[in-house]
Amino acid sequence: MNSAAEGAARGEGAAKLSCDENGMDDGFPYARPSVCELSGDIRIRPKQKTMYLVNPSGAGGFDENGEKQLRPYARKDDFLLPAMVEGKVLLLITNYKPWWVQKYTPVLRKLSSYDPINFDADAGVHCFLAGYLGLYRNRDLIISLHPTRNPRNYTMVDDDRFIRSAYALRRDRPSVLGEVPGMRPQVLIISRGGTRKLLNLEEVAAAAEELGFNVTVAEAGADMPAFAALVNAADVLLAVHASGRTNQIFLPTQVVVLQIVPWGNMDWMATNFYGQPAREMQLRY
Description:
The chain is an alpha/beta fold.
């Protein structure tokens, strides 16, 4: 037990539990995960997938057995359990995949000074004075204003600035024509090797070249820092509606983004998943 938990065990701070269990996101057809904030004597046993809150006063929020069961992530994916350690964040990751941790190491390092804990394999007991079970989730690529879930009024512009900082992407605005003699604006076309690929990709690239652009065609891969730098260098981003469009988070503000929407009644998804988020990022969609 660390010193923080020892202090809690001596009674320094009453046990508190508050949860946001509103299952639906306002105006969006996805369930939000439940999130609980805890303070007091918190003990986490990853191997048992259990978080204990020593609660001698019998404070509310638990059932008659002194338990509370949550589904911390509604979409059955990786999630993080952040707990506070002397003002810094320690991340506990379920469904731990080494490739995932390696791929997103720059972001994890920006969030925490500590190595993340494999929640599925760690056999120890970790003690804290404060922590969160689950994550506050918003819409895909949109951060909404909310008095409790977003009390500091962060926006997607703030999020993108944080991501660019994590990957050391210094470019924060697109090129200005004429600023550098002979410079041509950069177009990045995100290609796909499977479904929803451009059959006339070569013709599209040639047309952009004729219009005066330098054209790069690339498919997102495992080397996230390298691809992030490639996206950040673009003045125009062109891609078919697909998950690869999430890479627009690496773009400077005011860059032009073009989304090709396939046939099949996909306008709603295209607008809500990437179109409106692009506007929230102050991109020119």
